[in-house]
C-alpha cells in the first residue's frame, strides 16, 4: 500500500491561512465521533493532530484501539492525551482528581497551541470541562484567540458556553430527534465507546 504521508506532502502551500475554531455541541449523538472522523481525515493529509480527551480516562475506547494500529507514519503525526478519570463526571460527582486531570490536559493544550506544534487540535469534551467550571472560559478564550493563524481547533461537548460560541467560526449543534438512550439503552461498545 502506498503511504501518502511518506512524501512529506503537508498542507497545500497555496491555501490562504485557514485555521478556524470549530464547536460541536448539542444534546444529540455524534459530537465526539464527528471530531474523530475529522482527525482521520486530517491525518490522511499528513497533518499533525493532537486529541485531548477531557474527562475521559481508562483504555476502554474503540477509537484508542484503532489509533494504536494506524500505520507508523500516521501514528507519528498523532498524539492522544487522556485528561480524566475512568468514569463519567457530572457536576454532582466531580472530584479534586477530575480537576487535576482536566487541568493537566489544559496545560498541555496551551503549550501545544502556543508552540504551534500541530495543524489540528481536538479538545474533546472541553465544553463539559468549562461547563463544570473546571476550566475558566475566559482563559480558554484568550488562548483560542491567540492561536497560530493556520491551526484548526475543535471543541466538543454539550452546553458550549456562549462566549465560546461567539468566538468560534463554525458551530454545529446536534439536536436529538430520537435517541435509544431514552428507551433505556445504555452506551454500547463499538458505537458509543
Ligand atoms: P459520540 O461519542 O457517540 O459521538 P457525543 O460525543 O455526541 O457522542 P456525549 O454528549 O459526549 O455524546 O455523550 C456521551 C455518552 O453519554 C453517550 O454516548 C451516552 O451513552 C451517554 N449519555 C448520557 N446521558 C445521555 C442522554 N441524555 N442522551 C444521550 N446520551 C447520553
Ligand atoms: Mg462526546
Could you explain the architecture of this structure?
It is a single chain. The chain has 193 residues and is of the alpha/beta class. The chain has a single domain, classed as Rossmann fold (3-Layer(aba) Sandwich). Helices cover 34% and strands 16% of the residues. It has helices at 31-43, 62-68, 72-76, 96-114, 126-131, 137-145, 162-167, and strands at 21-25, 49-54, 78-83, 120-124, 152-156, 170-173. Bound molecules: adenosine-5'-triphosphate and magnesium ion.
CATH architecture: 3-Layer(aba) Sandwich
Share of β-strand residues: 15-25%
Largest sheet: 6 strands, parallel
Termini separation? 29 Å
Mean residue pLDDT:
92
Number of strands: 6
- Can you tell me the number of structural domains? 1
CA radius of gyration is 17 Å
CATH homologous group name = P-loop containing nucleotide triphosphate hydrolases
Short summary:
With 193 residues, this protein is an alpha/beta fold. It has helices spanning 31-43, 62-68, 72-76, 96-114, 126-131, 137-145, 162-167; strands at 21-25, 49-54, 78-83, 120-124, 152-156, 170-173.
How are the elements arranged and paired?
Elements: E1 21-25, H1 31-43, E2 49-54, H2 62-68, H3 72-76, E3 78-83, H4 96-114, E4 120-124, H5 126-131, H6 137-145, E5 152-156, H7 162-167, E6 170-173
Parallel strand pairs: 1-5, 1-6, 2-3, 2-4, 4-5
Bound molecules: adenosine-5'-triphosphate and magnesium ion (MG).
Residues 31-32, 125, 156-157 line the site of magnesium ion.
Amino acid at each position: 500500500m502506498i503511504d501518502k504521508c511518506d512524501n512529506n506532502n503537508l498542507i497545500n502551500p497555496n491555501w490562504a491561512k485557514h485555521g478556524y475554531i470549530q464547536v460541536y455541541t448539542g444534546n444529540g449523538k455524534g459530537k465526539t465521533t464527528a471530531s474523530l472522523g475529522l482527525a482521520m481525515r486530517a491525518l490522511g493529509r499528513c497533518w499533525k493532530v493532537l486529541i485531548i480527551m477531557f474527562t475521559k480516562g481508562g483504555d476502554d475506547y474503540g477509537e484508542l484501539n484503532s489509533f494504536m494500529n494506524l500505520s507508523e507514519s500516521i501514528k507519528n503525526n498523532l498524539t492522544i492525551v487522556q485528561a480524566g478519570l475512568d468514569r463519567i463526571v457530572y457536576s454532582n460527582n466531580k472530584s479534586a482528581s477530575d480537576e487535576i486531570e482536566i487541568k493537566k490536559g489544559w496545560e498541555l493544550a496551551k503549550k501545544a497551541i502556543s508552540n504551534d506544534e500541530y495543524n489540528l487540535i481536538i479538545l474533546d469534551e472541553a465544553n463539559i470541562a468549562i461547563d463544570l467550571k473546571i476550566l475558566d472560559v475566559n482563559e480558554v478564550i484568550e488562548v483560542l484567540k491567540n492561536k497560530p493563524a493556520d491551526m484548526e481547533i475543535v471543541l466538543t461537548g454539550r452546553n458550549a458556553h456562549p462566549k465560546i460560541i461567539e468566538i468560534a467560526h463554525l458551530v454545529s449543534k446536534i439536536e436529538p430527534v430520537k435517541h435509544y438512550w431514552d428507551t433505556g439503552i445504555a452506551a454500547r461498545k463499538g458505537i458509543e465507546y
